[in-house]
Amino acid sequence: MLTLEEKAKVRKHGGWPNISAAQTFFLGNPAAMEPFFILEAAMDSIIPTAEFLLREGLERCDRIYATIFDDADTLVAAKVGDIEINPKQFEQLVQRYLLYVDDMLQVMGCYRNPFDARFGGGAGRGINSRVG
């Protein structure tokens, strides 16, 4: 069984809010937070033999998240002496982070919040619909 702290980390990395699930129903169905219910149910239903996979994924996500957000000093200089820093490092780290998050959530058959705006996403990312 996942601990409360592990569940909070899964929500954070997946871009889901760490709030109590809304108890609002419309015609018998959860309203507004429906995908959130999917994640919550999956975290409560993960089989014990797969918990280690989720924990490994959490560790990977935590490490790269720390690299992205805590090592901001790599964004200060493009070149130091003969050493040139990869100008695409940040974008590559973000891509790898999102890959790790997707891999972790796949253990439960879930997906990232398409409205998570942390990495240039937000409304519209992942929900493409033709209008008109």
Q: Mind explaining what this structure looks like?
A:
The protein is globular and about 55 Å long. The protein has a two-stranded antiparallel sheet. The protein has one domain. Strand 1 and strand 2 (29-30) form a beta hairpin. The model has no long low-confidence stretch (mean pLDDT 81). With 132 residues, the chain is mostly helical. The chain has helices spanning 4-14, 34-45, 51-70, 89-106, and strands spanning 25-26, 29-30, 79-80, 83-84.
Q: What keyword list fits this structure?
A:
132 residues; globular; 4 strands; two-stranded antiparallel ribbon; mainly alpha; 4 helices; 46% helix
Strand and helix layout:
Layout: H1 4-14, E1 25-26, E2 29-30, H2 34-45, H3 51-70, E3 79-80, E4 83-84, H4 89-106
Antiparallel strand pairs: 1-2, 3-4
Helix pairs in contact: 1-3, 3-4
Helix percent band: 40-55%
Query: How many domains make up the coordinates?
Result: 1
Number of strands: 4
As a percent range, the share of strand residues is 5-15%
**What best-fitting shape do the alpha-carbon axes yield?**
globular
Strand order of the largest sheet: 1-2
Major sheet description: 2 strands, antiparallel
Mean pLDDT: 81
- Multimeric organization: single chain
The helix count comes to 4
What is the chain-wise order of helices and strands? HEEHHEEH
The termini sit apart by 47 Å
